[in-house]
Write a structure and sequence with these properties.
The protein is α+β, with helices and mostly antiparallel strands. The protein has five helices and eight strands.
């Protein structure tokens, strides 16, 4: 059975034939109008057919996976402890009641130099901890988490087993390095000593400051006496 579009195509062909044979202006005008009408109907039918195909394809697509909604407000974790073994760097996060939430509520995403901890719906709150720029690379596949009573343990597997981490992150290391007094061999050694004494004086209590002041005066007196004897 011919479709509606096929029937309209046949009508259009016949109208075109009649239009070629027509000689009277009035007849040609009527046929031209009919030709435009049939062409418009064919165009509309084709668009409807294409739309039905698109709708059919959309209905066959699997439903989009909707990520679970994180309810409540999120608290940034800033207090934690850490230690290490030959194979792991272990970060300890204390969260009261965390052992009572479903396992899937405790999520950790690892990269070679970072981890992102998200704990959802612990007593109506979510907790987040992001640590970037770990001191050394870790094994993503070998890293994991453990949930103990009121505690989450993030286990970062060292990529180089047996190496010691003096700091958890590169940022901590750089901050500590800046605090260390610099000893430049190309400068006057006494200048380095003065920098150390200056820092001790600034950080010291009143007794320490009096002791340094007394030592400084005695040093200047000795230096002045030596210059006089010379």
């Amino acid at each position: 059975m011919a479709s509606a579009v096929e029937e309209l195509q046949k009508d259009l062909e016949e109208v075109k034939v009649l239009l070629e044979k027509a000689t009277r202006k009035r007849v040609r005008d009527v046929l031209t109008a009919e030709k435009s009408k049939v062409e418009t109907e064919i165009k509309n039918k084709m668009q409807q057919k294409s739309q039905r195909k698109a709708d059919a394809l959309d209905s066959e697509k699997p439903a989009a996976v909707v990520a679970p909604v994180v309810t409540g407000y999120t608290v940034k974790i800033s207090n934690y402890g850490w230690d290490q073994s030959e194979k792991f760097v272990k970060i300890y996060v204390t969260l009261a009641g965390v052992h009572n939430v479903p396992t899937e509520n405790v999520q950790v995403h690892f990269t070679e130099r970072s981890f992102d901890l998200l704990v959802k719906n612990v007593n109506g709150k979510n907790y987040s901890m992001i640590v970037n720029n770990l001191l050394k690379p870790i094994s993503v596949e070998g890293s994991s988490k453990k949930v103990k009573t009121d505690t989450v343990i993030v286990l970062c597997r060292k990529k180089a087993e047996g190496t010691r981490w003096d700091y958890l992150t590169q940022v901590e290391k750089e901050c500590k390095d800046k605090e260390k007094p610099s000893y430049d061999t190309e400068t006057d050694p006494s200048e380095g000593l003065m920098n150390v004494l200056k820092k001790i004086y600034e950080d010291g209590d009143d007794d320490m400051k009096r002791t340094i002041n007394k030592a400084w005066v005695q040093s200047r007196e000795k230096q002045a006496k030596g210059d006089t004897e010379f």
